[in-house]
Amino acid sequence: MPSLSIKDIPEPLLAALHRRAARNHRSLQGELMALITQAASEERSGTGAPAVAAGKTIEQIAAEHRARWPKPFKSGPLAVDIIRAERDAR
Predict the structure, then answer these.
(1) Which of 3, 4, 9, 77 is the least crowded, having the fewest Cβ atoms under 10 Å away?
(2) How far apart are CA 86 and CA 90, in angstroms?
(3) pLDDT tens digits, residue range 13-37?
């Protein structure tokens, strides 16, 4: 597989990329690959809208989700209860 190298990256930019990778639970290499993939997907779609891994926009995924589950769930845990339990477990 071909490689890509970027030289002379300013320290503040490199630090920002490392922070972004950490926030997204990725290695620097993984974060750079995600950014490049997203940019290439936007270019292919021609819309300028971000595309996700399967080439679908968030709006397309949301429409599919609504079609699959047209009625809201009436049972199940509330988000606030899940967050509270996670917080209290620390």
Answers:
(1) 3
(2) 7
(3) 999 999 999 998 999 999 999 999 8
